[in-house]
Design brief:
Strand order of the largest sheet: 3-2-1-4-5-6-7
Strand content: 5-15%
Shape: globular
Distance between the termini: 45 Å
Order of helices and strands: EHEHEHHHEHEHHEEHEHEEHEHEHHHH
Structural class: alpha/beta
Low-confidence stretches: 415-437
Mean pLDDT: 84
Helix content: 40-55%
CATH superfamily of the largest domain: Glycogen Phosphorylase B
Length: 437
């Protein structure tokens, strides 16, 4: 088979799709992603079709994105994100169409689902979902993009999924219609129709972390899709010396998330670590944590592979992105989650409910005292450590990428296009009587 995989976003969105691309199993794979990931794709030997859309790192650092990101009202936030996306949507849709030419099937991931679907529709080829968050109607948990603290309300979980779908649809439909029309594919269909026409919905999530909801009969929770660089990685001498000279550190990093005041946030982290007496490593990442002065017990660096560093940590303080959460859980160390927005509160609450970390601290409420208490509990609570270790062992035993490839082969081979489609009922309860009232 020749597969095209369409993804847009930050490293956390792209790396799992690169992982799928590495597991070719005799198939050829082309991946549409941002131009900034070309060096990484080249190093991994992947066929990357770069999109001309705005670089995600520059976009995340822009004031317009930060304004949208900080909006407390989700309706306002989605309107602002839609306006930003409008500017690059046509380029992404056109690039996806070119990348998918000649493919037997198109994999649609995250925000790449929209241009990926448009390309598949225009070219008349099958498409499938390749998702990193559990999106679809269920009463078992709230929609990952909406507030998690209202799950105690009767009917909220189910209603939240319908509301989130409406919010996304209302925000992106005009833009998606115009971009899709520019490729000659017509108007964009309702989201439920897009999902129902998929050959299969793959979720790169461990079933030990999120159990597949009842009724999602054609969805497959394969296990996480980890990208462990086969070329290897050697730690800088400064990092290796730091690790060798003391106890395992607390690793702190917020990935691509930009805080309102990076210097202040770094100061909070440093003071909290000093208060607990813990050694620490600060990963500045795209979000740019900017420490002014550091005591000898704390080391700052821009980046280190999570797969290498997290197992050497005593605990990890992070933003709750899907990929970072997965890496921390696989490492078998407790997480202190400081969620910012999007699906991060969902993963933060999931970590708490699993018993792999203390209660999350929303970024708006981050303080020295709260962070110090959470770090202290992560380091000293035996039950948290025991649960994290057991969960890590379970996740490490899974073969998420291999399982995903086998599921695809089962649906798409030997005759591409003859596999069963997912009906609308596959994303909801078995019968109408099971729908919450």
């Amino acid at each position: 088979m020749h597969l095209a995989l369409v993804t847009v976003g930050s490293l956390g969105d792209v790396a799992p799709i690169f992982a799928l691309g590495l597991k070719r199993a005799g198939h050829t794979v082309r991946i549409l992603a941002h131009e900034s990931f070309s060096p990484m794709a080249s190093r991994l030997g992947l066929d990357l079709a770069p999109t001309r859309a705005a670089d995600p790192r520059a976009l995340l650092a822009s004031e317009r994105f930060r304004d949208a990101f900080r909006a407390a009202d989700p309706f306002r936030a989605w309107r602002r994100f839609g306006a930003i996306a409008e500017e690059t949507a046509r380029a992404v849709f056109a690039d996806a169409l070119a990348a998918c030419e000649g493919a037997d099937a198109v994999g649609c991931s995250g925000l790449g689902a929209f241009p990926g679907y448009a390309a598949a529709a225009r070219l008349g080829i099958p498409h499938f979902g390749a998702h990193l968050i559990p999106i679809g109607p269920t009463s078992e948990f709230p929609d990952p993009l909406l507030p998690q603290g209202l799950a105690w309300l009767p009917g909220y979980n189910w209603t939240s999924h319908a509301l989130a779908a409406w919010l996304v649809w209302r925000s992106i439909r005009p833009m998606a219609d115009r971009a899709m029309a520019s490729t000659g594919a017509g108007r964009f269909p309702p989201l439920a129709r897009m999902a129902s026409s998929s050959r299969i919905l793959l979720f790169g999530i461990s079933p030990a972390v999120v159990s597949p909801p009842a009724g999602w009969r054609r969805a497959r929770f394969t296990g996480y899709w980890f990208l462990d660089d086969p070329t290897g990685w050697k730690p800088p001498p400064q990092l290796q010396r730091f690790l060798d000279q003391g106890s395992p550190p607390v690793v702190v990093g917020f990935g691509s998330m930009s805080t309102r005041n990076p210097v202040r946030t770094a100061r909070i982290v440093v003071e909290a670590l000093v208060e607990t007496g813990a050694r620490g490593i600060l990963l500045s990442g795209w979000g740019g944590l900017r420490p002014e002065e550091l005591p000898s017990q704390i080391l700052a660096m821009e980046h280190a592979p999570h797969a290498w560093l997290f197992p050497r940590a005593a605990a990890v303080v992070h933003h709750g992105g899907a990929g970072t959460t997965a890496s921390a859980l696989r490492a078998g160390v407790p997480s202190v989650v400081v969620p910012f927005a999007f699906d991060q509160p969902f993963w933060a609450e999931r970590v708490r409910r699993l018993g792999a970390g203390p209660a999350p601290i929303p970024e708006r409420r981050l303080s020295v005292g709260r962070l110090a208490r959470a770090i202290r509990r992560a380091l000293e609570d035996y039950r948290l450590g025991q649960t994290a270790r057991a969960l890590g062992e379970c996740i490490r035993s899974e073969d998420g990428v291999g399982t995903a490839v086998r599921e695809l082969e089962h649906v798409l081979d030997p005759a591409v296009g003859s596999g069963p489609r997912i009906g609308l009922a596959a994303l909801g309860p078995e019968t109408p009587s099971q729908r919450p009232q």
